Amino acid sequence: MVRIALATYDPGAEPGKDTDLPVLVRALTDAGARAEARYWDDPDADWAGYDLVVIRSTWDYSWRVEDFMAWLERVDRATRVANPADVVRWNADKRYLGELAAAGVPTVPTRYIAPGESAGLPADHEYVIKPTSGAGARFAARYTPADHDAALRHLERMHAEGFTAMVQPYLAGIDVTGERALQFFGGRLLHASRKGAVLSPGTPYDADKVAHPGLVPWRPTDAELAVAEKALAAVPGSAEPLCARVDLADGEDGAPRLMELELIEPNLFLSLHPDSLPRVTEAILAAAGE
Question: Is the pTM of this model over 0.85?
Answer without folding.
Answer: yes
